[in-house]
Specification:
The complex is a heterodimer of chains A (560) and B (327).
Chain A lengths: L1 H5 L12 H18 L11 H20 L4 H22 L1 H26 L8 H14 L3 H9 L7 H27 L8 H39 L1 H5 L10 H23 L4 H21 L1 H4 L14 H9 L7 H26 L1 H11 L1 H6 L4 H27 L9 H14 L4 H29 L13 H15 L8 H9 L11 H10 L15 H8 L5
Helix pairs in contact in A: 2-3, 2-4, 3-4, 3-20, 4-5, 4-15, 5-15, 5-18, 5-19, 5-20, 6-11, 6-18, 8-9, 11-18, 14-15, 15-16, 15-18, 16-18, 19-20, 19-21, 22-23
Chain B lengths: L1 H32 L6 H19 L13 H28 L8 H25 L4 E2 L9 E5 L2 E4 H22 L2 H11 L1 H6 L4 H26 L2 E2 L5 H14 L4 H19 L1 H7 L14 H15 L14
Antiparallel strand pairs in B: 1-4, 2-3
Helix pairs in contact in B: 1-5, 1-8, 1-9, 1-10, 2-3, 2-4, 2-8, 2-9, 3-8, 5-6, 5-8, 6-8, 9-10, 9-12, 10-12
Classes of the chains: A mainly alpha (560), B mainly alpha (327).
Chain lengths: 560, 327
């Protein structure tokens, strides 16, 4: 608990060099951690809640290395020590911390993806976990015996009738015709802001045709793949039996990329119809779509095995990692975690790099522009739909790749893992840490995951063992909704910009302040307006001096 | 065939009335604050849980002789009154604590706060039931309410269905009087139209907003009691889906419009029931065998797709007014 109040308060700036305190902090917390785990002496035994608190304090050294002013070599050394040596060693002593560290990384990547959608582009997505589900099911189906069952349910192979492919093909052509029609309408009436009358009706019909066409394409592709797969396995029975435990696990590497692509495509498909909507409508529609994905996962029993979920999902075998783990005296049941931990570190490094690079690119600036003021951005020539779809697809692809890792780590996925609760959980991480700020979002993800997966179960355990007859409905582990809710409300009331507000935001708003020097005192507030603004009318984008007192009121969280 | 169609229509309209009542709570709050009150679904579940508790406490013991104990209609009225009071006050409390301090913040801030409140309430309700030692409730509707009134084409109409329609009609009439034909209603409409100008005209906008939340919460509580009678299996989390659908109904009818919410609720209820029994058409018409693949669970999907289609082609809803985008 102390970690919560302690770590975030540190700010960069003209602070003195803190190389020595950083080293001391890291050494002390790591010694404490190993003491708590019983690695140093067997005589000390800490309760699990305390140990997990020490673990978070220890992770705090990463944050301090990021935030404090210190020698870069030392910072690098601390980072490398914590991530590459200490956490694996802690994992060796206690597998659950390995698991926790991987989960933290998974959720950090999810939160970074959602941060692009909500924090950078200002689109509130309440069904984000749907893309996570897409990635998880992509690998889950192929990495387990599920694929064999799908194929078997299609056998014996019956050749396709003409209607099976002709009807979707005709629908596809209709869609193409609708697209061309729409283009011709738009060419004939350039610059028409609001189409009227017959033109409007024609546009509606052509859009309807396009929707039908998309459905046709999807059906056509699905039918053709289905026919090809079942005709192949219809005549190659032995290769079907070889699929009993899924396809060759080495395909895992390929599926990481397939999952990225699939999630990005579903991001585009979901984004296309809904991105015309503004703030709160978008929120409720994405909430609905998230539920829709769950309903499909529950009911497409043939593919997803319904509510029972998919079990025994495999991972890629990496023999040299296993050998390394053996020589480091890891127990064999942790080889998989050992491999996945380093894999997830690599992926999260890629995710952070992509995030930083995108944020500084044209696209990143376009996102910020849209978030700040949609109309103004449009007037400046930012293509609205394209930019929003880019945000949706990028966020979705992060979730997709983490879905694969999640499926491989859990070995079991079911629709319950991808509920509305999870979406809000990821949103809570983004909000707690600070929208739009990468370090903040990661901090939020780590803290929320830690409370959710380590503190609450630990508390439950303690309570269960001290009061054995207690009503199991009072188990703290079941109250993570309460936790998410309290975090969301309190953050909105008192610190909407998050624990670590985005520095780039503040700098950017500072730049715009030259018209009104007095505004500089409102920086924190401006950052919040920016980070949360939808660009909808009524948002104080252009702040006039007359509005300052009211805004200042808001900054300090003053409730009168 | 006729009985199936009648079933779709009857059940759809009954469900639609429920959606309409819940949707009214959303639409009134949205109309005055432009805020989706995510917590409304939990307010409505609170009403359902109050119905459960009232029926449980005031129902006669199972071994009591018939005719003993309170008249079931009185119990029903007590449940309604308590639920409306508690839910109305709960909604005022939510507004005071979680929305009012954020009145001038960017739009997403109160929205996220509303999601947070919704989650807090879900677990508080769960905690409440957890302390009592249960979590999944099966509302024990008085046996008298299950009696048949009339049978239309093989579809039984029970007393609780009649009660649902009667209560909803009375409530709608009262709401119409209040909003359109009273001084308070005019003040509420004025605040919804322009808060600042309404303030200049001497209207206390905070009070009017609180009053709107009170009315919305009371409607939610009433909807909860009726919902619990129609669908007796409830738990603390069972508000999200009906809540989202009721909001869809409000959008379908035109958000901010009271007749729109009612119309949207009825349309959504019928459409949803139609989608739910689509697979049975495969039995009647052998040529439509492919419909058998559409499971009744997909009706939820239909409701959301309907929402998206409406928002794309007619964002102002069926009865809503077109609003122009201001810079």
């Amino acid at each position: 608990m102390t970690a919560l109040s302690r770590t975030p308060g540190m700010r960069p700036g003209s602070a003195p060099d803190r190389t020595v305190p950083l080293i001391i902090y890291t050494v002390v917390t790591s010694l404490l951690l190993f003491l708590a785990l019983g690695d140093l002496t067997d005589s000390v035994k800490f309760p699990s809640v305390i140990t997990s608190g020490v673990f978070l304090l220890f992770l705090g050294s990463l944050l301090l290395a990021y935030q404090w002013k210190a020698s870069n070599v030392v910072k690098l050394l601390v980072g490398a020590f914590v991530l590459l040596i200490a956490i694996p060693d802690v994992g060796r002593l206690n597998g659950s911390y390995f698991d926790l560290a991987i989960q933290m990384c998974i959720f950090a990547a999810l939160a970074l993806g959602l941060n692009i959608v909500v924090g950078q582009a200002g689109l509130l997505d309440l069904g984000y976990v749907a893309f996570f589900a897409v990635g998880a099911y992509v690998w889950g189906i192929f990495g387990s015996g599920q694929f064999q069952q799908i194929v078997q349910s299609n056998l014996p192979y019956t050749p396709m009738g003409v209607g099976d492919w002709l009807i979707p093909l005709i629908l596809t052509l209709l869609g193409v015709a609708g697209y061309l029609w729409l283009k011709s309408i738009d060419r004939a009436h350039p610059g028409a802001m609001k189409p009227q009358g017959a033109q409007r009706a024609a546009r509606s019909v052509s859009i309807l045709l396009i929707v039908i066409g998309v459905a046709g394409v999807l059906t056509l592709v699905a039918t053709l793949i289905n026919a090809a797969v079942s005709s192949y396995y219809g005549s190659h029975a032995p290769s079907l039996t070889a699929l009993a435990t899924g396809i060759n696990p080495n395909f895992f590497w390929l599926f990481i990329f397939i999952a990225v692509a699939t999630a990005a495509i579903s991001g585009v498909l979901i984004g296309l119809p809904v991105l015309k909507l503004k703030g709160d409508y978008l929120a409720i529609v994405t909430l609905g779509l998230g539920e829709v994905i769950r309903v499909f996962a529950n009911n497409l029993t043939k593919y997803t095995n319904g509510p029972q979920g998919i079990t025994t999902i495999t991972t890629a075998p990496v023999s040299w990692m296993d050998k390394l783990a053996t020589s480091l005296k890891f127990p064999p049941e942790q080889f998989k975690l050992f491999f996945l931990y380093f894999l997830v570190l690599v992926i999260i490094a890629v995710v952070i790099t992509v995030n930083v690079r995108l944020g500084r690119s044209n696209i990143g600036r376009a996102w910020v522009a849209i978030r700040e003021d949609e109309l103004a951005a449009q007037a400046m020539g930012v293509p609205l739909v394209k930019t929003k779809i880019m945000a949706f697809a990028t966020g979705a692809s992060f979730a997709g790749v983490m879905g694969v890792i999640f499926a491989a780590k859990q070995q079991f996925i079911s629709p319950e893992s991808f509920s509305y609760l999870q979406s809000i959980g990821v949103l809570t991480m983004v909000i707690l840490g600070g929208m739009g700020n990468i370090a903040g979002v990661i901090l939020g993800a780590i803290v929320v995951t830690w409370i959710n997966l380590s503190v609450l179960p630990g508390l439950s355990e303690t309570i269960q063992s001290s009061f054995p007859g207690l009503n199991s409905n009072l188990d703290p582990a079941k109250y993570n909704r309460l936790l998410f809710g309290v975090i969301l409300v309190l953050m909105m009331l008192f610190r909407p910009e998050g624990l670590l507000p985005s520095a780039r935001q503040q700098a950017m708003l500072h730049e715009n302040d030259d018209t009104d020097p007095a505004e500089s005192s409102l920086n924190a507030d401006g950052a919040l307006g920016g980070a949360l603004g939808t660009g909808a009318a009524g948002m104080p984008d252009v702040e006039s001096p007359g509005m300052s007192p009211r805004l200042e009121n808001r900054t300090t969280g003053d409730k009168k | 065939m006729e009985s199936l169609l009648a079933a779709i229509l009857i059940n759809g309209l009954l469900l639609g009335i429920l959606y309409a009542i819940i949707a009214l709570g959303y639409t009134m709050v949205y109309g005055i604050l432009q805020l989706i009150n995510f917590a409304h679904s939990e307010v409505f579940v609170t009403g359902a849980i109050i119905a459960y508790e009232t029926f449980r406490i005031l129902s006669p013991a199972p071994d009591a002789p018939p005719g003993s104990g309170l008249n079931p209609y009185i119990v029903f009225v007590i449940a309604l009154v308590v639920a409306m009071l508690v839910c109305g006050l709960l909604n005022i409390l939510i507004e005071r604590l979680a929305y009012r301090p954020l009145r001038n913040a960017p739009k997403l801030v109160p929205l996220i706060s509303a999601i947070g409140v919704s989650f807090i309430l879900q677990d508080l309700l769960r905690l409440f039931e957890g302390v009592q030692g249960r979590f999944d409730l099966a509302v024990n509707v008085p046996a008298a309410f299950n009696a048949n009134v009339v049978t239309i084409l093989d579809n039984n109409i029970q007393i609780k269905d009649v009660l649902l329609v009667v209560v909803a009609a009375v409530m709608l009439f009262g709401l119409n009087r209040l909003v359109n034909h009273s001084k308070t209603g005019r003040a509420i409409r004025a605040v919804a139209q322009d808060r600042v100008t309404a303030g200049l005209m001497g209207i206390d906008s905070n009070r009017m907003i609180a009053l709107t939340f009170m009315i919305g919460g009371a409607l939610g509580g009433l909807g909860g009691v009726l919902f619990a009678m129609k669908f007796p299996n409830i738990n603390a989390y069972s508000g999200t889906i009906p809540g989202t659908k009721a909001f869809s109904a409000a959008v379908l009818g035109g958000i901010g419009s009271i007749p729109g919410a009612v119309l949207g609720g009825l349309v959504l209820g019928v459409v949803e029931n139609f989608l739910g029994v689509l697979s049975s058409f495969a039995l009647i018409f052998p040529k439509l065998a492919f419909l058998a693949a559409i499971k009744s669970e997909y009706k939820d999907v239909g409701a959301f797709i309907a929402l998206i289609v409406i928002l794309i082609f007619k964002p102002s809803g069926l009865l809503g007014r077109n609003t122009t985008e201001k810079v």
